[in-house]
Amino acid sequence: MSVTSERQTAKRAQILKGAMAVFLRLGYAGTSMDRVATEAGVSKQTIYSHFQDKEGLFRSLIEGETLARFEAVFQLDPHQVDPETLLRRLAQIYFTQVVDNSQYVPLLRIVIGESERFPELARLFTETVAQRGKKLLCEYFRHHPELSIRDPEAIAQIFFGSMVSWVILQKMLYGEASFDLSRDRVVNQLIDLIVGHSGNRSYSD
Amino acid sequence: MSVTSERQTAKRAQILKGAMAVFLRLGYAGTSMDRVATEAGVSKQTIYSHFQDKEGLFRSLIEGETLARFEAVFQLDPHQVDPETLLRRLAQIYFTQVVDNSQYVPLLRIVIGESERFPELARLFTETVAQRGKKLLCEYFRHHPELSIRDPEAIAQIFFGSMVSWVILQKMLYGEASFDLSRDRVVNQLIDLIVGHSGNRSYSD
DNA sequence: GTCTATACCCTGATAGAC
DNA sequence: GTCTATCAGGGTATAGAC
Fold first, then answer.
1. Mutate to test the interface with A, among B26, B147, B158 (most CBs of A within 10 A)
2. B68-195 architecture in CATH?
3. How many Cα atoms are found within 13 Å in the side-chain-facing hemisphere of B169?
């Protein structure tokens, strides 16, 4: 039975891998089960023996991607680090560990695009991904009153929201074709605004 | 001929109105031409006599919505207004004239969701909508060196990006269910950061 | 559990009457 | 230009052999 179980989970992973390639490229409605079967290298009936239907497959896929990808992100200890270093490190983690992953942009696109058909996936995404860094930053602000941050949650929204909207505008909506603006400039100005330093270093230092 | 032409444009507008209701709710692939015909109150063949195919209808719809909706936005004269008033007025225009329109969130969602299949629509959207306010704000910063804005474009990205990402998180991805954060708090903190005032007024004052 | 073959519906697009 | 009727193809999901 353990062998059978291993085979099952292997097939399941194989199906999910193929499904991810198709769903993230073509969206939910644009994806056919035939195409998933071909991409995964299994027959259609095999998919239906592991997942109830197309919706169930899609939910399992997005849920798994959301939870697996971001559970190890933003785990740093914020104490005993100066503010500029913390903000720069958070930006670095977001850009190098999240944005530079080739599946982040398509995943964000499909979560947004299908957020009306699958609202619970959208909520899962916001709760696991968006709130994580925000809570860490808010806690830091509350323990550092010398920064005189009036509204930590609003500042956290500004900090992460500026970076996310940069990704959407530049990478998702092809804004870089008509408007060149590097990550570093946004991060430097954010740090300049929040902690009042000049902020000329790169986020990747 | 003028009567015929009027009838044509009336039918065309009728089709586009029905198409908008369906496309914005179900996405491109999720929309069927049968459903558009029913919603618009015309037959399917009538649609095909006005538009080449499904793609052509979709492109006309999104292009028209993008151009018509935002051509009158951000037309204010920025000169001889103090910085806080300008930023607060820009935020007010964005939230009341853009976000509060019931079609903005679905339109933004579908432009993002279909940005891989229709990249030229995504570029049109960024160029007409996103860049308009940004350019106005940048020009203002350049004419007001007393604000000592080092990187106007980056600050403009932070200003508008924070508001757009607030809409995406709170309204599109249902973040308001787990995280309450009002517009006013974000706008007040943005103004506080950029012009250094306390910012306790409402954006709608 | 996995495959081939198939049922049945709905899709985009068109033909022809008026 | 607008409608009804229809075509060919692809959609999800399932039946039955092994």
1. B158
2. Orthogonal Bundle (1.10)
3. 29
